[in-house]
UniProtKB/TrEMBL annotation:
One of its GO terms (biological process) is fatty acid beta-oxidation. This is Enoyl-CoA hydratase. Pfam families: ECH_1. SUPFAM superfamilies: ClpP/crotonase. It comes from the Bacteria. It comes from Pseudaquabacterium pictum. NCBIfam families: PRK06210.1. One of its GO terms (molecular function) is catalytic activity. InterPro entries: ClpP/crotonase-like_dom_sf, Enoyl-CoA_hydra/iso. CDD domains: crotonase-like.
Length: 276
């Protein structure tokens, strides 16, 4: 990629997207946001990519919106204006996805591949918003978290008022959002904000090992459908969720990946899924 606020690398069918403003703890700017979306589009459109890892360069994951922008009163810059004007947004990753996942910041759930956040350091404000839109979160021991908004005179923005209580429950979300206190990776694990805590020097290796298992042994089609089902579940009744599951199961029976899933098991060989 020509711009350098984001680094992009593909290896073993895993795309690693790295926020690359280490001197600012990878603080968010409109330019970084545009490059991040372009990287996710690139990974989405590449049939050679099956899993995405999002991480940060240097000591931080993402320290939130760049304070220089906040001081100037621009917050997320032009991205905020675009969020209020759907005509200004790029094409959605999945046009059939909920409008909830077609805004400037909320598009990760519409990316049809698992996104795993490897949280290597400070994760605050808008950085936490992005981490919560990932499908899973692995954190380095010692990483610090905060919602930050209330201590900046701001509110729970960009959907965190939905994603955070979805993970930790209403009262714990209220605590983290209203107090905007800092909490560490161990507490994040206890609360359910993150899924694993690892020694800092093992974070990327462990995240890649998990991602590689998905890339090598799991149907890409199944991952995409299951991800869509889970992110939509809050918008459906139980009956609707059952009906969607039944429809998707019938479609799965006709897929190449289903035939391969049975064949590799019966033949006791590694899977060779195509995603079709």
């Amino acid at each position: 990629m020509a711009d350098t606020d984001i680094l992009y690398d593909v290896s073993q069918r895993i795309a690693t997207v790295t926020l690359n403003r280490p001197d600012r703890l990878n603080a968010y700017t409109a330019s970084l946001g545009e490059q991040l979306r372009a990287a996710m589009r690139r990974a989405t459109d590449d049939p050679g990519v099956r899993v995405i890892i999002l991480t940060g360069a240097g000591r931080g994951f993402c320290a939130g919106a760049d304070m220089d922008n906040l001081a100037a009163g621009t917050a997320s810059g032009g991205a905020t204006l675009a969020a209020e004007n759907p005509k200004a947004l790029p094409q959605p990753f999945d046009p059939a996805s909920s409008p909830d996942y077609q805004t400037v910041h909320s598009y990760f759930p519409a990316v049809p591949k698992p996104i795993i956040a490897a949280i290597n350091g400070a994760c605050a404000g808008l950085g936490l918003v992005y981490a919560l839109y990932c499908d899973q979160r692995f954190a380095a021991a010692g990483a610090k978290f905060t919602t930050a908004f209330a201590r900046r005179g701001l509110i729970a923005e960009h959907g965190i008022s939905h994603t955070l209580p979805r993970l930790v429950g209403l009262s714990k979300a209220l605590d983290l959002l209203v107090s905007a206190r800092k909490f560490d990776a161990d507490e994040a694990l206890r609360l359910g904000v993150v899924d694993r805590v690892l020694p800092p020097d093992q974070l990327m290796a462990a995240t890649r090992a998990y991602a590689l298992d998905l890339a090598d042994n799991v149907s890409p089609r199944s991952m995409a459908v299951i991800k869509r089902q889970l992110w939509a579940v809050d918008q459906l009744s139980m009956r609707q969720a059952i009906e969607v599951g039944n429809q998707e199961m019938l479609a799965s029976f006709g897929s190449e990946d289903f035939k391969e899933g049975v064949a590799h098991f019966v033949e006791k060989r590694p899977a060779a899924f195509t995603g079709r």
